């Protein structure tokens, strides 16, 4: 991966992984639904923020490099598709 700081991304994903394990543990221990839902929301938010940071880095590095090489139309089509897919709620 050459678009972002891989170490920072891995660190964020490790934290998210810990959140997911915590959610699983709450469910296994018959935790309160409200707490579980709050933790799911926090994990979704953290994952989305990670994606936003990756997208910013991708634009700043990969997309700009491709544009400088004269691939404007192709790279903008790909970028548009990626942004559309990323922004879908799920």
From TrEMBL:
* Matches recorded under InterPro entries: Metal_Tscrpt_repr (IPR003735), Metal_Tscrpt_repr_sf (IPR038390)
Which Pfam families does UniProt cross-reference here? Answer: Trns_repr_metal
Q: Which Gene3D superfamilies match?
A: Metal-sensitive repressor, helix protomer (1.20.58.1000)
Q: Which family does it belong to?
A: Belongs to the FrmR/RcnR family.
Mind telling me what this protein is named? Metal-sensing transcriptional repressor
Taxonomic source organism: Taurinivorans muris
> What are the leading ranks of the lineage?
Bacteria, Pseudomonadati, Thermodesulfobacteriota, Desulfovibrionia, Desulfovibrionales
